[in-house]
Structures are given as structure tokens and as C-alpha cells.
Amino acid sequence: MKKNFLSIISLLLFQFGFAQGLSWQGYFSFNEIKGISESSTSVFAASENALFSKNSTSNAIKTITTVDGLSGQTISAVYYSPSFKKTIVGYENGLMTLINEADGSIVKKVDIISKQLAANLKKINHIMEHNGFLYVSCDFGIVQFNLTTSQFGDTYFIGDNGAEISVKQTAFYNGFIFAATSSGIRRANITNPNLNDFSQWTLVSAGSWLGVAAVDAELAVVNSTGNVQRYNGNDFTAFLQLPSAPTGFHVVNHNLLATTSGAVSILNNQLAMTRQIFNSQLPEANLTFSCASAVGDILYIGTKEKGLFSTSLSNPGTFENSTPEGPFRNNIFSLDATPNVLWAVYGDYDTYYNPYELDSYGISKLNNSKWLNITYSEVYDAKSITRIIVNPNNEKQVYASSFFSGLLRIENDIPNLLYNEKNSGLESLTFAGPNYIDVRINGTAFDKTGNLWVTNSRIKNGLKVLKTNGQWQSFATSSILTDAEQTNYSNIVIDKNNVKWISTSSEGVIAFNESTNTFKKITTGADAGNLPIADVRSVALDTKNQLWIGTTKGLRVLSNVGSFQAEGQMKANPIIIIDDNLAQELMYEQFITSIVVDGANNKWIGTVDSGIFMVSPNGQETKYHFTINNSPLPSNVINDIKINSTTGEVFIATNKGMISFKGIATGANDDLNNVYVYPNPVRPNYTGTVKVAGLLDKANVKITDIEGNLVYETTSEGGTIEWDTTAFGNYKVSSGVYMIFISAQDGGETKVKKVMIIR
């Protein structure tokens, strides 16, 4: 029963977030353009799993993300229907969504996903409209869709003997529908009522074809080598060789735009080349073109790295970037958040801590809704940057951990030093030989005196500290680990006694007390620490001095970090909850990637495939469980979680984009001087909650109407409470001014605020 109740709550939150856009916010990258479509006034660009449009007259840019109702799946095609004023989005998994321009509503169609076909055959490659029908090209064939009824029609398997065949693009020409497929150009009479009969489709030209397009009286096709051919009524003849294989083949304004990775070739309606635009002409070098379109005389070019560029179609010269602001990419691996800024890094490693994709994506910073992206060349070519931390004593100083190149220092947003094996106490792993340099820095934490502690994986002296005086010191983790040179470290936290708690890949949690130079360990086995597995991916300290331990096989809690001082073995225990009258272990068998504690001592727990959980301070109540099915999460793969302690915004980084949840996860204040109420006034169209922020912990909050009648009372946990604007949940209160009386737990400090409600 409890599980069903939570599901209902999650669904309500999901609907509220989508309808109001108040609880959730998206922070997506729009840099990798997957497709472009256009209307007479706007261009529509699809990135990995988000859309944006730009009005060519007003230059207004509008974005649509999972927060608005899009799927987090990877987009593979986009088409705007001018006659129906709908944007149609196709996905690699076969999902199709329709976005109604009039009201912004989004309808998801899962018919292709539901087909009894192999999952890798359902990708939507192209969408073509003719007479109110869409012809959706997929990796198995063509599916017809009625735009009037919003229903799918027949499916055409047009391969030999009705076999599945990958259809890359379709075009309508002289009464026929032509299909460019992986095994030939095929055509059929579009008025034929039996197009689902493969025998009605004629093979016009053999070969592997990637595009087909009708330009007024001409029909052109392009194959996988970039050879462009025209139709003479019976066959195709070559007339143009593109520099490489096409990435786009699109007709607009009586022009054919043939895009390759390095050039856009513009052909008129007689298929004569009028101009070519090369990526070398853009202000940023070595960009990869993915597609192109035009609105009037404005040419838009999509790239894989830096979004959408525009220039004059008739007289190309100056190029303008028209991409909405965002991080470098969606797959954010790690974050750090302060009250003022958010930092994001993209380096990663696989389940076995293998970093050998060795990415080169740089670092991103969000400040006042503006993104600053520091490029790979600016970070001294540091690869696989897996962690980032802001100095709590100096917000302008930031350190980024590279799981290959060392430790990067950033000051005033400018990288200025890369610590490595040559200029610091950091060390390269040694098992690959003395000439191989690989400095694997990951977890970092500042202690209360301002020293920076870092983990240096797969060496004997795996714990390092950078002192405030610039000196380095090393500590031998080999004294506690069975095989330090094979051990990787994840994160590190430091408790109030200055003990360092470090998560390891194969030996559980190790703890180190600098003052006594003592290491201890919590690992598997009833007598050795009681972990379910020795692979620990996250440790977190809560406000009750408990250590929460996230492993690849579940959750454990050390009830008091002070037990480090005792002589006996420290032991962590599972949290047992009662669900459907059965005793169960909280987070049983879950691969936990991140644990963060909010201002009210709730725990936010990220998993590798089950989304994110928020549990009560003692873990007995699961308050939220967000997944792709009940929230705007673009993926159930949670890479990292961080919380802005001042605003309560919970940032959730997934492998397909970052979103935030605006709850009440704020830290408690030292006094009541900065209490504020929002929104204020509460307007008629607002359906969310009223929040009272800036509170002391355990503050008593009473809300009355203007006549003194009590309508709500609560005690704060952390720095914020919320009121659903009802009288103790019974009914919505009427319009008027409501008094908010706040007092400290000991009664020594009070504050009075007002909020106006307008129904």
C-alpha cells in the first residue's frame, strides 16, 4: 500500500512539474544538432534530447526539454508541419512525439516502440509529409501516420520478399513515393491502396543510398560515398561528387542543401551548384556539420560540437551562433554547487574505473543563469576530469581532478596550474612501466583549516594533501589496503573530528586520522564491517554524525563516525523498512552512484539504473522516487547529485542531461534576519506551494488569517518549510492577507511575515 501511495505522489509531482515548470528546471546542452526543420518564419533544431526554435525576424529563442514533456531518449529526426502547425520528433528507439504549436501540448506515440521487431531496427531516420500523412522512415521500413487523426496507419516492409530494410529517407515525386534504402532506391505509386504489399514497390536503382529529395521538377539521390545522381524518368545518372558521405540532404526554398561533415553544397532547382560553404569559413575551427536548412535568406547549419550557426544564404559571410546557452554536453559526470555557482565536468570512467576513452571536453560553470565553458585547450589538455571542488574559503579558487593527468587549479575562472608527477606530490601509476605516465586523481575534500585532501589511485601512497602553504604530503594507504596498486578511489569526506573517510573500489571504506597517523577499514564480512560488497562508490556524512555508504550492491550506515576512536572493528548496518507488512532492506542490491544530505538531513540517493531516491533522515520513509516515468529525468542513470544549500535546488546529473528539483532542501540559518516568503503574492493561476525560507532549524511556524484563525502550523527541518495554501489540508484558503508567525525553538527570537493570496 505504501508503495502505491508513493507512486501516486510521484505521479502528481510529475504532472505538477510539467504543468507549472516550478519544481523542475532543465540544464541541457544544445551543442550536438541532430536535425533541422523550418517554417516560413522559424528554424527548429533538435539536439540530443531537446529542441529549440529561433524566429528569424525577432531572433527569439524558445527551448523544449524533458521539463516540458519531451522524452530523454536520443532524437534522430525532426520535422515541422506548416499545415498542421505541429513539430514531430522521432527518436532512435522508435518513439515519436507531436508538439502542438497552439498550446505547447506534447503527445507521445509508442506504436513503433511496441512493434514486435528487434529494438535496434526501430530508429526513425526521416519524416516526410504528403497530403496530410507522414511517411516515417525507419530501420525496418516505412510507417504511415495520419496527421488529422494522430493515428498510425499501415507499415510498409519494402525489402525483397517483404523483408525488413533500412529506409533512410523518402520523397514524393510525380505521383510516386521514392525511398532511399540500404539496398536500393525503391518507388511505389502513392495512390496505391496496397503499399503494404512489397510487390508494389519497384527497385529503380541498386546500391546503398542515404538520401532522396525532390526539388521542383528534379529528383536527386545520394549514396553512401557522397555521389549525387539525378533521375531521368527511368534511372539515375551521376552529376556531382560530394567531398564525403552526406550527413544531410534537405530541400528548402527551391534549393537542395547537401551537407557533409565539412561542407554544405547549395544546389538550385535545376540541380546546378550555386555555392559551397566549408567549415573552415566558420569562426571556430574543425567543426563537424550535421545538417542544414534555411528560412528566407538565412542559412542555418547544424554542427556536432557547437550547435547552430547562421549566415546569409545569398551572400554568406559573417556567421552567428544561434544556440541556447548550456553546458558543453549532456553527459555530466560530476558537479559541485555553492550558493552562487555550479561547476560541471564531463570526464568519466567505466564500471571498472577504466578512463581510457580519455575525453577532452573541458569544464562548465553556471552563474546567474549564464554558462561559461572552459575549453579542453584551456585546461592544459587534462583528460578525464572526473571531479570538481570549490574552495569553501575562496569561491574563486576551484580544483578539478583528472583521472589521467593530475589536479587542475582554476582561479578567477582561468586554469593556471596542472599539478602532476613532475611538480607536486602526485604520482603516476607504476604497473604499466616507468615510462608510462597516468596520474589518477579523483576524490577531493577540504578540511576545516583549508588543506585540500585528494585520492591518488593505484599507487602505494594513495592519500595526498595539499597544504595551505603549497606543500604536499603523502600517506601510505598500502598500510591498510591488501593491494593499494590495484585499488581505485571514489569520493572522500571529512568529519568534525578531521577523520577522512574514503570509498574504495575493492576494499570498502578506509578512514584516516592524521593526528594519530591511523588507518582503519570497513569492508565485507560480519566481523570486518558488514558491507554487502567491497566496491563502494559514495560516502556521505549527515548532521547526526552518521556515515552513509553507497556500494554497488546496496546501502549501509555507520551509526556514529566517533566509533573510529574505539579499539574494536567499526560495523555498518542496513536500514530495515517495513513495506507491505514485510521487513525489507532499504536500497537492497541497488548500484548506488551518489549520496547527498540536504539541509533537513534528508538523503538524496542516486543509482546506476533506477533513478533518484529521497529518503527521510533515518531512511524509514521514501519521500520521493523520481524516474523517467514520473518526472522530467532524462535518464535513470544518475551520475552525481549536488545541492545549493541556500536555495535548496537539487542538481541531478544524468548521462543524458542535468535537471534540478526545487524543493525545500535548504540549510538552516543562524538567525531569522533573512526570512522571506515566495511567491508573494500568490496569483490565481499558481497551483504550487508557498515557501518560507531563511529559517532556523526547529523553528515553529504558524500561519493565520487576518482575524487570527490558525490555518497551518509546522516545525522546520532545515531552512525552509512549504505550505500548500490549505487549512490543514481540508480546503483551499480564500483570498486575503495571511500572517506568518515564526519563533525559534527556545522562543528567544521571533519574526512576523505576511503573504497575500489572490484566488
From TrEMBL:
This protein's species is Flavobacterium endoglycinae
Q: Which InterPro entries match?
A: PorZ_N (IPR048954), Secre_tail (IPR026444), WD40/YVTN_repeat-like_dom_sf (IPR015943)
Q: Which residues form the PorZ N-terminal beta-propeller domain?
A: 43-202
Could you list this entry's UniProt keywords, alphabetically sorted: Signal
Q: Indicate whether Signal appears among the record's keywords.
A: yes
This chain belongs to the protein called T9SS type A sorting domain-containing protein
Please give the Pfam families that the UniProt record associates with this protein.
Answer: PorZ_N_b_propeller (PF21544)
Keyword Signal on entry: yes
